[in-house]
Design goal:
Layout (H helix, E strand, L loop, with lengths): L5 H14 L4 H18 L7 H13 L12 H13 L2 H9 L18 H12 L5 H10 L2 E2 L2 E2 L2 H12 L5 H19 L10 H6 L11
Antiparallel strand pairs: 1-2
Helix pairs in contact: 1-3, 2-3, 2-7, 3-5, 4-5, 7-9
Length: 215
């Protein structure tokens, strides 16, 4: 794998957030923490601490293309180009794959702000790869993390829809994300939400003090 260390990733993200402050950076932190928590339980992801740290780094950098400014689909290409320049090919790949639970450019949630040449590059890139467990892990974690914390996937999907709209592929896209969740839960033998703190509070807007006491 060609990934930065956690310390390098933190420096890259600090620079990126200075260039384009916004809630995307906190979202990225929660994606990283979700990836770490789920990877620790997954039999197909090596449990050594260095491997877990790598998966956390993948989640942390998935949206680093936001450093280039306020864009829609362009952030995938901006992140890919930036991390490829740094020599981090594995992390660069995830900048693209995290938005494609379906390998089809027409099934994305955001509007297109890419040139014809860039669109052709994305089509060729997706056609030339097979999604692996790491692609699916970051797709999953991206779909359960808001800037305020972990949440039910359905809440995150609606959050994206309210901000970016829906199209005739939205339901298919949502089904793909839910399928990824089901596959991971079958592998780890439990709900992903049992591994993530604060899901109830963040999903439903309750403060901890408002929750009923434990039995």
């Amino acid at each position: 794998m060609t990934l930065p260390t956690r310390e390098q990733a933190q420096r890259l993200m600090q620079e990126a957030e200075r260039l384009n402050p916004g809630p995307w950076a906190r979202h990225s932190w929660y994606v990283a923490e979700a990836a770490r928590a789920i990877a620790q339980r997954h039999p197909g992801l090596e449990p050594e601490s260095t491997k877990i740290a790598q998966q956390s780094v993948m989640g942390y950098l998935h949206d680093i293309g936001r450093r280039a400014g306020k864009t829609a689909m362009r952030h995938t290409l901006d992140g890919y180009a930036f991390l490829m320049e740094q020599g981090f090919e594995t992390a660069a790949r995830l900048c693209i794959t995290h938005v494609f639970p379906i390998k089809d450019l027409q099934a994305v949630a955001c509007q297109w702000d890419c040139s014809a040449a860039e669109t052709a590059f994305l089509e060729a890139f997706l056609a030339g790869i097979e999604f692996d467990l790491y692609d699916r892990l970051i797709q999953l974690c991206d779909a359960i993390a808001l800037p305020t914390g972990f949440c039910l996937m359905e809440k995150r999907l609606i959050d994206v829809a309210l901000r970016h709209g829906v199209n005739d592929r939205s339901i298919e896209r949502w089904q793909a994300f839910l399928g990824i969740q089901q596959a991971f839960e079958a592998d780890i033998g439990c709900s992903i939400y049992t591994l993530l703190p604060g899901v109830v509070e963040n999903t439903f807007g309750f403060e901890s003090s408002m929750l009923p006491p434990a039995e």
